[in-house]
Amino acid sequence: MEKYYITTAISYTSGKPHIGNTYEVVLADAIARYKRSKGYDVYFQTGTDEHGLKIETKAHDAGVLPQEFVDSVANEIKRIWDLMDTSYDNFVRTTDKHHEEIVQKIFNKLYEQGDIYKGEYEGWYCTPCESFFTDSQLVDGKCPDCGREVQKQKEEAYFFKMSKYQDRLLKYIEEHDDFIEPESRKNEMINNFLKPGLQDLCVTRTTFKWSIPVTFDPKHVIYVWIDALTNYITFIGYDPDGSSDLFKKLWPADLHLIGKDILRFHTIYWPIILMALDLPLPKKIFGHPWLLTDNDKMSKSKGNVIYADDLVELFGVDAVRYYLLKEIPYANDGNLTYELLIDVINSDLANTLGNLVQRTISMANKYFEGVVTNKECHEDIDSDFIDKINSLSSNIDKAMDKLAVSDAINSILELLRASNKYIDETTPWILAKDEASKDRLETVLYNLLESIRVCSINLSFAIPSTSKEILRQINNIREENSYLKDNKYEVGTPSVLFQRIDKDKFFSVHDL
């Protein structure tokens, strides 16, 4: 069985994750579930990044120890990941003692081989981004990444020789077209960072304590890059003195799924660290777009932050998952408002999917007491419909191979719409009035049930609970992902999958 190792970026434990942060783990989960359905031995890792000045400051302000602070936030992040029905195999935390020991070993190895050296750093520091910037990198005197104020800082530090590896990395990226995706992100990294030349990277700090100490110089703590980025290898058993069988099986990662705002760290810093460790690079790094609210970036200061658990309470897990996966395009930012979410729930989930399932099961019960077999009383219209059912799996494969999850869902939606159209064109309610058309009517309902079965199987990566519920209602567990001639249905009682939402009533009740 072929392995597939997929990771998300680890979430920073400075506070509760919003729906934009949550999108990444739902997207990774959809890919992981799809790969499992194709027979891959999937290992899906996510977790939390728990060190740094920002954590130390927030813990101090809250009057608790840093460990107590990160324990609380990590538990909250894990709760939300679990609420969203994500099927991760490992939830990692960088305060794990074994991780800290391996990070120290990695730092020592890089120092001993001359890739890390001691020097002095002076620059503009952004605390929220935990990044130093030069004068030329500032935008209007502020942080180029988040737009906040920066402070001038000067301190002794250890540096990583980025410049030593930049030509090798540039060559690698140019020779591996699909290493960084989408293409626009790859070009940005090459033209804005690699070609102008890399500065050596500050990898320790002395102005705070909440991190992993350098063993041979304990006034220094190991800075975020070597601590956080190495989670992808330390938690699967990498050790400079001899790695585990799990590491040998899983590495290199098949996919690092990250937000486009941390692309530089993952496509420049991380590959160079791996090169220095003499390890293979991940096969693909995908910088996904952002989820905006009302076409604006989410921020607590703007008061436009939306949280996943609030949405789930209002709309249910699968409705939120569906929106995130379908409405955020492959390479462009997606947009979320309560109005848009309700529109999608009503049109796609209540009308197109829910109505199809309810109508079909109800007709099977009404006309055949719930028992439907294939009488093979076909007409020309059936051939095109059956072809659509049989082509669904390959259409999804093509989209998912490109990580175009939204396109994959749209291909399922097209078949669901075609199924509703098939009902309108075959008019089962008219066929039911003529005893001579009974076999034709049963064939029509059989074809519809086969379409529903195949759509449900394919929807399992996006809306797993709903997929199971549909298969329960049609009472069929055949797993073949194509039209079957010899299936038999003994359907159950239909129940509503998704309630239509009256917008006016919704907004009169909820002050959003």
Give a topology summary.
Blueprint: E1 3-8, E2 11-12, H1 19-37, E3 41-49, H2 53-62, H3 66-83, E4 90-93, H4 97-112, E5 116-126, E6 131-133, E7 151-160, H5 166-175, E8 180-181, H6 183-194, E9 201-202, E10 204-205, E11 212-213, E12 221-222, H7 224-228, H8 231-234, H9 245-250, E13 255-259, H10 263-276, E14 285-288, E15 291-293, H11 308-315, H12 317-327, E16 334-336, H13 338-368, E17 371-373, H14 380-401, H15 405-426, H16 428-431, H17 438-459, H18 464-474, E18 488-490, H19 503-509
Parallel strand pairs: 1-3, 1-13, 2-3, 3-4, 8-14, 13-14, 15-16
Antiparallel strand pairs: 5-6, 5-7, 7-9, 10-12, 11-12, 17-18
Description of the structure:
- The chain is of the alpha/beta class and 512 residues long.
- The chain has 19 helices and 18 strands.
- The strands form 5 sheets. Strands 1, 2, 3, 4, 8, 13 and 14 form a 7-stranded parallel β-sheet that branches.
- Helix 10 (263-276) links the parallel strand 13 and strand 14.
- Helix 2 packs across helix 3 and helix 13 crosses helix 15 (405-426).
- The longest helix has 31 residues, at 338-368.
- It is elongated and about 90 Å long.
- The chain starts with a strand and ends with a helix.
- The mean pLDDT is 94.
